[in-house]
Amino acid sequence: MLNFLESIVHEDLGRGDLFTQILESYRQDYIANQQLLGVESFDKTTQAYIIAKQYGIFSGEVYAKKICSLYNITCEFLKHDTQEFHKQDTLVILSGKYVDILQIERSLLNILQHSSGIATLTRQYVAAIKDYPIVLLDTRKTRPLLRELEKYSVRNGGARNHRMGLDSMLMLKDTHMAHIQGNLNDFIKYARKKLPFGISIEVECENIEEVERALKAEVDIIMCDNMQPTEITQSIALKNTIKPTTLIELSGNIRLDNIVEYAKTGADALSVGAIIHQATWIDISMKMK
């Protein structure tokens, strides 16, 4: 996280904050002429307020604390991760040197706006299926190098993370299946001998026939991809007959306006990439005394 945050600030600072450079030159010229009136010292401390301009779910506290600590800025959180906020709410109070606060302002706001945007959309999906015993998951459809931040934001919204990367689970999709020599049963048996203890095996299926084949291979999880609710119900009935302990995950074209229909099927989980890649930033700004 430290390298990530340092890179974010460096991206914004570039070759140096021009305001700080000009202000220093301005001060030196006035000192030379003994006319330093109303020009504040770099050491002057002040307070700044991060304020919400719309409703949302707060996320980004862990990152905000770390980025502030890099610049010796103290931060008092009036809202914490997972908590909702409303328009005009003060979310965080910053205290420190005014030049330091100005230098991290944009980087800090970017993190809070992006993270809170994901948490807010995720909370809407979670609320939609709250009456059903099904888990909402994210996917690996994340922005390059932002996966850790975005999956953290999903958790703050109330959902759970699917695999973090290719090393978290053995998952076989159609693109993998095309390159497996022999039958699926043999490959699964071989994989179980080689995988670290506790690693699950999941297989993506697009129809009932593929579901039956995966069940007979005794996989841990079946992903019903782009299947209609009626097909999913049939798949669950088949699972209960062949291998009841296999988990059923649903994925593909699941949106807020149809998620309840999928939740009603009795599946174990729903994976929705949209909670990350369709989230919009929350409008948050900073005001300084």
Write up what this structure looks like.
By secondary structure, this protein is α/β, with parallel strands linked by helices. The chain is 43% helix and 18% strand. It contains 11 helices and 12 strands. The protein has helices at 2-13, 18-32, 61-69, 98-128, 147-157, 174-177, 184-194, 208-216, 229-242, 259-263, 274-277, and strands spanning 45-52, 56-57, 74-77, 84-85, 90-97, 135-137, 170-172, 201-205, 221-225, 247-251, 269-271, 284-288. The strands form 3 sheets. Strands 6-11-10-9-8-7 form a 6-stranded parallel β-sheet. A 4-stranded antiparallel β-sheet has the order 3-5-1-12, covered by helices on one side. A two-stranded antiparallel ribbon has the order 2-4. Strand 10, helix 10 and strand 11 form a beta-alpha-beta unit. The chain starts with a helix and ends with a strand.
